[in-house]
Amino acid sequence: MTLPAPLTLERSFARRIDLTSLQLFVAVCELGSIGRAAEREFIAASAISKRLSDLESTLGITLLYRHARGVDLTPAGESLLHHARAMLYSLEKMQGELSEYAEGVRGHVRVHANISAIVQYLPEDLGAFARLHEGIKIDLEEHLSHEVVRAVQAGAADLGICHVPEDDTGELQTLPYRRDQLALVLPQQHPLAAQPCVGFAQTLDEDHVGLHTHSSIYRAMHQAATAEGRSVRLRIHVTGLDAMCRMIDNGLGVGVMPRRAFELMQAGIGRRLAAVDLADDWAHREIRLVARDFSTLPVAARTLVQHLQPPADAPGAPREAAAA
């Protein structure tokens, strides 16, 4: 059978790329010199130079500008360096995972989750899972909610755990995981601290300490402020909820975070701060499990999904139990 021309070219290209040459190319780029790369890799400089020339000939492009002081990357070389690093990193991860299978690991689950899920619920849930399933290893990474969705779509994660806007899932499937309630965190002496709940509009005259502008919490805050014809006075950006509390504790503004996250961190900041629930509808949120297709997940991932379906009396447990 004759393969289609594009597929033939792709296979031919893959077979002609030498991993050792890519590793040496990356070394030369990192050190800026063929000679220094030769010393680090314990190989003759002439052998590296020959491999790089062969690589350029195979690709039909110039990758390096050679000069007396060393080498500089061409635009094509910069592109190859990016892809070569990604490929070599993936190979290292593959080697690490396969070696763990040899040591008794029975499955890997790649999970991407947002900060709300990681701070509030996942430590206990994943800890309990690990004790029940010692042979399954979980690789967990923290990302913004939209990045979690993108990683699942791209296949970089088996399972996502995040806040998912209904119009942002595409062909992905979701299941309920937990609910959370956003609250305004502020000093105990603040006038709003005595109220049972506040509307977000009441906070728009305050300086805010907030998370990244692409976080789901900030996006909701921005939309709410825009609906009022106002803007959020976001004076300080932080990358974590603990840093937000410390900033607020030192008088730098107020902040919005999940109430349970605040309660879990309160021991570290004493009782100088208070949390007042936001009365707005968008402050009642749902954290969902996200996958391309739950039925086709590997056994280890399906086992984790089943474990993460909380009982009705669990903190923040959702009322419904079916896929959206």
Derived from helix and strand composition plus strand pairing, the structural class reads alpha/beta
State the helical fraction: 40-55%
Number of strands: 12
The share of residues in extended strands comes to 15-25%
Give helix and strand order, one letter per element, not per position: HHHHEEHEHHEHEEEEHEHEHEEH
Average of the residue pLDDT scores: 84
Explain this structure.
The strands form 3 sheets. Strands 3, 4, 5, 6, 7, 10, 11 and 12 form an 8-stranded mixed β-sheet that branches. A two-stranded antiparallel ribbon has the order 1-2. The radius of gyration is 26 Å and the shape is elongated. It is of the alpha/beta class and about 325 residues long. Helix 2 crosses helix 3. It has 12 helices and 12 strands. The protein has helices at about 5-15, 20-30, 35-40, 45-60, 75-100, 115-120, 120-130, 145-155, 215-225, 240-250, 260-270, 300-310, and strands at about 65, 70-75, 105-115, 135-140, 160, 175-185, 195-200, 210, 235, 255-260, 275-280, 285-290. A hairpin with a 2-residue loop joins strand 1 (about 65) and strand 2 (about 70-75).
